[in-house]
TrEMBL record:
Family per similarity comment: Belongs to the short-chain dehydrogenases/reductases (SDR) family.
Pfam families given in the database record: adh_short
Protein name (record): Uncharacterized protein
Keywords noted in UniProt: Oxidoreductase
InterPro entries hit by this protein: NAD(P)-bd_dom_sf, SDR_fam, VLCFA-Steroid_DH
Species this chain originates from: Aedes albopictus
Length: 149
């Protein structure tokens, strides 16, 4: 009888220890981290700048407006300089964030990345939003060609 009670106590202790180590401590950790993350702004979470391609129309423009409204500074990339300036003025007037513009035509191929890289080198890019139909394909070509050098 005493042995049974002892075994029950040891079993209960082991189960409690396992639950604490494997469920409660990690669970509380995850909960705590997600609460802390939610309190942080996009800038604090990812960095100061968001780079948006295809930023002068449609999805890209909407994306740029939303990110600026959340306090991100923007690098807007598109083909037409006039449209870039117009969108820049609109977003600046609405939000006051800092905005850089890069006018490039992605249909010219990977050479446009020299220009983009020079513009982005000195800034802390936290978010990249690709909203044109060329960028991701070109970016992968660019990465493979630079890796081969
Ligand atoms: N809208 C949809 O329902 C939908 C659905 C599924 C997928 N998509 C895809 O999502 C992407 C964006 O769609 P959207 O409707 O927002 O397009 P959109 O309104 O036509 O806007 C396209 C943007 O990409 C830029 N762009 C186009 N060609 C370019 C080039 N050669 N070099 C640099 N920039 C260029 C345009 O700039 P400029 O005006 O200065 O040329 C513009 O800012 C597209 O790839 C589209 O296929 C859209």
């Amino acid at each position: 009888m005493v042995l049974l009670v002892l075994l029950a106590i040891v079993g209960a202790y082991a189960t409690a220890l396992w639950t604490l180590e494997n469920l409660i401590v990690p669970g509380v950790g995850i909960l705590w981290r997600s609460i802390r993350l939610r309190k942080k702004s996009l800038r604090q979470r990812y960095g100061k700048w968001a780079v948006i391609t295809g930023a002068t129309d449609g999805i890209g423009k909407g994306y740029a407006q939303q990110l600026a409204a959340k306090g991100m500074d923007l690098v807007l990339i598109s083909r037409s300089k006039e449209k870039l300036v117009k969108v820049c003025q609109e977003i600046k007037a609405a939000t006051g964030v800092e905005i850089k513009l890069i006018a490039v035509d992605f249909s010219h191929g990977v050479t446009v990345f020299d220009n983009i890289r020079a513009e982005l080198e000195s800034i802390d890019v936290g978010i990249l939003g690709e909203n044109d139909r060329f960028f991701s394909r070109l970016a992968s070509e660019f990465t493979s060609s630079t890796c081969l050098q």
